[in-house]
Sequence to fold (842 residues):
Amino acid sequence: MIALPTPRDAVQRRARLEQTWADPKGVWGFLTTVDHKRIAARYIVTVIALMFLAGMLALHMRLQLAFPDLKILGPQMYNESFSLHGSTMLFLVSVPVMEAMAIWLVPLMLGQRGMAYPRLAAFSYWLYLGGVTMLWIPHILGITPDLGWFEYPPLSGPGYSPGHRADIWAQMITFTEVAALAASVNIVATIIKLRPPGMTLARMPLFLWAMLVASLMTIFALPAVMLVTSMLISDRLVSTHFFAPAGGGDVLLFQHLFWFFGHPEVYIIFVPAVGFVTAIIETFSRRTIFGHTALVLSVLSIGVLAFGLWVHHMFAVGLPRLGNAFYTAASMAIALPAGLQIFCWIATLWSGRPRFATPLLWVVGFILTFVIGGLSGIMTASAPLDLQLTDTYFIVAHFHYVLVGGAMFPLIGALCYWYPKATGRMMSERWGIIAFALIFGGFNLGFFPMHILGLEGMPRRIYTYSPGMGWGPLNLIATIGSATSIVGGLVLVANAWISRKHGTPAGANPWGGSTLEWWASSPPPTYNYEYTPVVESIAPLWTAKDGLPVMTGAGVERREVVVTSAIDAVPLYRQKGASPSIWPLVAGIAVTAMFVGSIFTPWAVVWGVVPIGAALTGWFWPQRPRARTGPLARRAV
Amino acid sequence: MTPEPPPRLVGDLAYLPDHADGARHVVWWGNLGFMLIEGTGFLLAIGAYLYLQSQSPAWPPGGDALPGLTWSGFFTGGLLLSVIPNIWVLRQARQKREGRVRIGVLAMTLIGLALAVVRWFELQHLGVRWDHDAYGSVVWLLMVLHTSHIVTDLGDTAVQAAWLYTHEVGADQFSDVEDNANYWSFVVLAWLPIYGLIYWLPRLA
Fold:
């Protein structure tokens, strides 16, 4: 039996660990940190700021549509508003925030001290920030993309869109996709190689499965959108003819490649939400999840099926009928694993002892909303019906129900659930319930009428309508609903802000959770864990009644993470952890210079390689003694 | 909440090595991840080529010259031959032979440089410009994608050679050499379908 150190030694040990994992002080520490918690936190803060801006755009549009013939926004401003709203929410909020949650939670849930590639995580944030500024700084200067969140050619081609609005949109995507790919590789490697001893694949919580599958989907889906936007830029910049029919190109090629990414993207956003929901339901039902294996298989099958659906976004373009029939069937098939998940969650709640704290309220809100969105999805999966509904407000209602209901509600639930872990304080339950009521009620009031407006024929992306159409009352209700949910959003953020300092102290495991992150203190120290936990079940904190089994030996004097085998999580070696570094930021700036330059001249791609190469060399240059052998050995002094 | 019982110490990880080779090493998986990303990019670009071909009555479209076989033949032959020294370097890295690894990485730098020069001539003999028609655009898309991989790996190998000759080589650097050699194998493998597509499909079609 190995003994724990005496309390005095333990204090010294923790002080030494703190020193080993500390960031430099001040601004330099801010710029050089590779701490996954700090990186994820700045991702989340950036995302919340962008959600506020996108929400303001939405409110502006809803005000314009509240009554017929209003003149608050002109047609051009309206086009810019929905383009900026959609691009921000899809590219700068939904995908990055899911990755941020993974960057924050995955190492903690693995009982680890860091990510597999800490500097890559820092690099991914800086590039993401590049994407944010790429879209929003030109907006401040009055150059805003105005062709929606998918900019189809020929409208976005050189003939119809001179200037740089379309380039800005296309290159913003390149930024965010490189950032997302870097984050995804990091998350996959961390989950595969940094699981704690004993956490075999069979004992891996569903949250980690969800993040693994979502990251793998990112790896296979995002290259399509990078490729297609690069092709668009090259059509615009160096006169290629990919999408120019006169030169033998084809505009539908753009749509195929875009939706080959675009449809999996919906599930890249939804699958992490499955992880949040499962974690919350398990904790608040106070029992292990019902049908864990079925849930894992359903997440895996969604990951595969999501790549076979993209054509259902193109039913109206006139493809062969057999193709439409196939994609109708595939689109309906994906409802099966999604439905299975809903039944597993309901069964867990049913057979558990549910406690309806705020996070679980969000999950209930999610189930109700997502089921409605799923059912309208089954309707639009049918090609003949879709032909009637496409480009109407029915579609606007459908995708807000699945994206806001299916991903944002679980996300808010997750933020409420893990908030005490991140800050060490509880959020106010009373204000949490008020925020939930306002957002959930406002959302349904705002978006349900849009189904009816769509069935009545109101097209999406119109800036106004005449009184004779009869769409006024439902639009007014929609505007009131949207405004209500925005008030709820402000209540939610205010609650989080005030609770940071004034909330009740949380302790390590305020909700009685089963997974390892609840074993760390709240907030976790820089090194996360003093010891390496050993996992003996799928709910380690619930089964280790006589104390969690742990191992010592992971470095105290230097940064180390424990690397284990991919399937059985057998300890293999201790990997030296990366120290703080300015190079990810320098590399991010170098890549930014190339991406921005390439809007103006193709030579930026050539010359931009030099600073990027220099930055990467600095980043990866190993710090070791000079050679004592070989022709370039250091001469003896 | 009842307080958590204190943890039980059940083992010591201090006996573990601080390095591992091949797929046991965590960086190996990052390399694989980026190969998957880039491999997906290649496959989609190949898909775009086939799609545009399916939309065109003739391929190459009427009047376009077929791409030249000479320089592309030299390039492909050279690239395939480079697999031999590449595997040799990989084996030396696995056996942690410092001197041979230095020589091998330097040799691979020179081979990469020579292949880049041949690629330059190959690009002059594609028979079509990227702005001529969609066929030219997609041929150049595939060529630029692959050439960027040649250049990236050349840069990486050159930096690695410079570092290896000036520093004491540790276990992690042998793994870096191994990862770089694996990446070169990926660059070679990725070329084969592209070569068939660009140079032989239009001749067979």
Summary: The helical segments of chain B are 26-54, 70-81, 83-94, 98-124, 134-166, 171-204. The mean pLDDT of chain B is 95. The longest helix of chain B spans residues 171-204.
